[in-house]
Amino acid sequence: MVRLNEERRSVSEAITSRRATRAFLPDPVPRATLKRILEIAARAPSGSNIQPWHVDVLTGATRDRLVSAITTRFDAGDFGEEEYQYYPDPWFEPYLSRRRETGWGLYGALGIARHEKEKMRAQHRRNFLFFDAPVGLIFSIDRELPVGSWLDFGMFLQSLMIAARAFDLDTCPQQAFAAYHEVIREVLGLSDARKVICGMALGKADVSNPANTFRTGRISPEQFANFHD
Known about the structure:
Strand content: 5-15%
Radius of gyration: 18 Å
Oligomer: single chain
Number of strands: 4
Structural class: alpha+beta
Distance between the termini: 20 Å
Helix content: 40-55%
Shape: globular
CATH superfamily of the domain at 18-85 and 127-214: NADH Oxidase
CATH architecture of the domain at 18-85 and 127-214: 3-Layer(aba) Sandwich
Largest sheet: 4 strands, antiparallel
CATH class of the domain at 18-85 and 127-214: Alpha Beta
Order of helices and strands: HHEHHHEHEHEH
């Protein structure tokens, strides 16, 4: 059995306690806390230390303005257009089964049956409310940077979500925002030279909400790792 000292145990618990939180309390997060989380996350590695991440932190009226602009489009049946491909097309195994398991697991926790399309749509819409989190984050990258910088960005995102746990805060990474990159650019005044990667909700989890009772599983190391002696 691997023994962990207190510091290592804290790191382990921060990683394993991170979950995609889909309902938040309205409690505000102090700006000093947000800055500290970003400072910690910025220690993420990047090739040649180029640090390719850009973050727009949204609270208050700006957050509400973006929420209103996107939900207005969504309610009108405009579901945006992706700037980059995130999922495989077509889906194939084993990834299709894992996706379905996650989707139906969440809907099951919310009491949504497979034929209740309107309820599914309403749940998807909650993405664009940042699941009621008081803080919304929008992440973008210089358009000319290649795939290596996207790998770096992923490490930054993970570092941010883990850093938030040190402050008893929760997060939900949301690629769904990328489909509304034009709206985001207009509301936030982002340059066309930057590509929107995703959004993220940040705040204190509403543990009473059934959406937060759902837990995704993970495959074991024996299923994804080969050990070579």
